[in-house]
């Protein structure tokens, strides 16, 4: 009689063991029958790996992405085949454009049914080809460890991003011997010292140098190194779209962010720089305002472009000094760089003063002044509070008027994805229950993933949720009014009673119809162990911090 090898177990157990060895402590997902053996394998690791049961795969993928941003570790999401995979796609796309490490585990039909369009079958290589670094299918049980190792290495190397692994059902059920593999090693490109020296020699000669920081792959150490050098040398630093938390926004070197409707003074400062140092940021469409801030492909000034992956260098902008290095390696090397005597030393202070002036509240129609409320948030929240948001015109108020407190105080999707704010805030409370997490949402944005309040209730991870309610899809309505004045179609919304909705999840709720009502509501929310929902009703005319709805149009 043959004997079973002591390391023999079913594929789900092998996979669960491999995840634990990769250091996975939290995984998010919605259970499905297509990966039952993996769920079974997780039973043996309940003290080390917690599976967060979510209510929809899109919310689960957002949570995994937010977890990765906060911790620097790959976010892990587990979803079932077909519909589950389709729902999760939105979070995978977010991770891809935000350069966030993620490992996506998706159930799949058995290998004996592939290419028959079996129940819920999808070709994941085709589905995810545009938004994943790699899509693999583990078609042999004895290769599970190999594929997991590859996935975790790839997700964390170069330009970080999502990796997708399909899990054929029969492979998970089969027995095989475990092939124990250590945790992935994070592989980074070393700094070319000669190229660095030449680039920074030119930078030190400049009269009007400028730095732009952004993208993924940053560490707290790198952020501190950049801030220390910039303050010592009096260099202004701007951040890219939704990367405002790379610096404390009250840091004297912070010049503002190049996002939607950026400060015109900042844009002018960037365009008039006589050399530009860009660290970690691809210089994408939103940061470059439709690629109009800098000329394509050759910028109007010498460009030093630092990115963790050489594949991204020269993709849109030609760099005079293309440097492949992590932000940490590059920023640590900056300490040796000293500016020349011709540098205009008052530039940093002038840039920061311009940021502060642009951040002063503006007046909008109606009894609720949203910019005043957002600006006042800094007096209510601790500096390490985490603020999250999805997409919509409401977010412009947050980005412009709230000074973020530094590293990992902002969770926002660079791909402009609606519905991100609430799941991200829930993930933040799961990761660090003691930190204040505030989800800043529009009414349309909130309703995209409002069901995840059930996840918050289950895991006692309830954030403060601020809902800016103007009864419409504001961003689309704004564009609609610009292009087809007074011809409204498809952008008006009918909302539930948000107060009653909050109470159904045992959360206190407050409706704000005047500016002065907000202070007591946010204070009550901060004291509540159940979090809170604060609905702010604003005039539909207040379409942006500086425009009225009726003013738009040709």
Question: What does this protein structure show overall?
Answer:
With 554 residues, the protein is an alpha/beta fold. It has 3 domains: 8-177, 3-Layer(aba) Sandwich (Rossmann fold); 193-357, TPP-binding domain (Rossmann fold), CATH 3.40.50.1220; 361-551, Rossmann fold (3-Layer(aba) Sandwich), CATH 3.40.50. The chain has helices spanning 11-21, 36-42, 57-71, 83-97, 124-127, 144-156, 169-173, 193-204, 220-233, 264-271, 327-333, 347-358, 370-380, 394-401, 421-431, 443-448, 453-458, 474-483, 498-503, 518-527; strands spanning 8-10, 26-29, 50-53, 75-79, 102-108, 134-137, 162-168, 175-177, 209-213, 237-240, 254-258, 275-279, 303-307, 321-324, 386-389, 410-411, 437-442, 464-469, 509-512, 532-537. α1 (11-21) packs across α2, α1 (11-21) runs parallel beside α6 and α9 runs parallel beside α11 (327-333).
Side by side, the strands of the main sheet go 3-2-4-5-7-6
Secondary-structure-based class equals alpha/beta
The number of domains: 3
CATH H-level superfamily of the largest domain:
Thiamin diphosphate (ThDP)-binding fold, Pyr/PP domains
- Taken from the alpha-carbon principal axes, the silhouette is globular
Q: Which parts are unreliable, with pLDDT below 50 for 5 consecutive residues or more?
A: none
Oligomerization? single chain
Largest β sheet strand count, sense and barrel closure:
6 strands, parallel
Binned strand content: 15-25%
CATH fold group of the largest domain: Rossmann fold
CATH class label of the largest domain: Alpha Beta
| Percent helix | 25-40%
What gap, in angstroms, lies between the N and C termini? Answer: 85 Å
What's the number of extended β-strand segments?
20
- Cα-based radius of gyration, to the nearest Å: 24 Å
Give the second-level CATH assignment, the architecture of the largest domain.
Answer: 3-Layer(aba) Sandwich
Number of helices: 20
């Amino acid at each position: 009689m043959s004997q079973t090898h002591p390391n023999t177990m079913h594929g789900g157990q092998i996979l669960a063991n491999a995840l634990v060895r990769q250091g996975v402590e939290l995984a998010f997902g919605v259970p499905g029958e297509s990966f039952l053996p993996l769920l079974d394998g997780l039973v043996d690791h309940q003290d080390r790996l917690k599976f967060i049961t979510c209510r929809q795969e899109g919310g689960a993928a957002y949570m995994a992405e937010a977890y990765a941003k906060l911790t620097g570790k790959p976010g892990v999401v587990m979803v079932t085949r077909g519909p589950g995979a389709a729902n999760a796609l939105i979070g995978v796309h977010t991770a891809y454009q935000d350069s966030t490490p993620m490992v996506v585990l998706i159930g799949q039909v058995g290998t004996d049914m592939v290419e028959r369009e079996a129940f819920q079958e999808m070709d994941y290589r085709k589905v995810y080809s545009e938004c994943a670094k790699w899509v693999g299918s583990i078609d042999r049980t004895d290769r599970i460890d190999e594929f997991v190792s590859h996935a975790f290495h790839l997700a964390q190397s170069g330009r970080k991003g999502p990796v997708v692994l399909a899990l054929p059902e029969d492979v998970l059920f089969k027995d095989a011997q475990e092939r124990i593999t250590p945790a992935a090693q994070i592989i980074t490109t070393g700094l070319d010292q000669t190229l660095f020296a030449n680039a920074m020699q030119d930078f030190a000669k400049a009269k009007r140098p400028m730095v732009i920081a952004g993208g993924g792959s940053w560490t707290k150490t790198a952020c501190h190194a950049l801030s220390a050098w910039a303050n010592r040398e009096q260099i202004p630093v701007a951040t890219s779209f939704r990367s405002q938390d790379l610096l404390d926004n009250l840091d004297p070197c912070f010049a503002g962010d190049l996002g939607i409707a950026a400060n015109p003074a900042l844009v002018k400062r960037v365009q008039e720089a006589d050399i530009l140092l860009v660290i970690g940021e691809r210089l994408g469409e939103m940061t470059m305002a439709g690629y109009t801030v800098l000329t394509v492909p050759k910028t109007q000034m010498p460009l030093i472009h630092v990115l963790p992956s050489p594949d991204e260098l020269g993709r849109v902008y030609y760099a005079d000094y293309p440097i492949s290095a992590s932000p940490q390696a590059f920023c640590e090397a900056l300490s040796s760089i000293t500016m020349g005597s011709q540098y205009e030393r008052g530039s940093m202070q002038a840039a920061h003063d311009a940021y502060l002036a642009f951040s002063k509240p503006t007046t909008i129609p109606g009894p609720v002044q949203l910019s005043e409320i957002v600006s006042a948030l800094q007096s209510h929240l601790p500096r390490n509070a985490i603020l999250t948001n999805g997409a919509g015109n409401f977010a412009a108020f947050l980005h412009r008027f709230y000074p973020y407190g530094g590293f990992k105080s902002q969770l926002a999707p660079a791909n402009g994805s609606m519905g991100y704010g609430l799941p991200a805030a829930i993930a933040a409370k799961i990761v660090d229950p003691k930190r204040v997490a505030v989800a800043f949402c529009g009414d349309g944005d909130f309703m995209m993933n409002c069901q995840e309040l059930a996840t918050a209730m289950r895991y006692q991870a309830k954030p403060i949720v601020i809902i800016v309610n103007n009864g419409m899809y504001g961003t689309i309505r704004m564009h609609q009014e610009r292009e087809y004045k007074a011809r409204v179609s498809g952008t008006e919304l009918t909302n539930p009673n948000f107060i009653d909705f909050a109470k159904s999840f045992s959360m206190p709720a407050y409706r704000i119809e005047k500016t002065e009502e907000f202070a007591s509501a946010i204070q009550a929310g901060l004291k509540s162990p159940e979090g809170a929902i604060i609905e702010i009703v604003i005039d539909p005319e207040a379409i942006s911090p500086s425009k009225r709805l009726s003013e738009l149009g040709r």
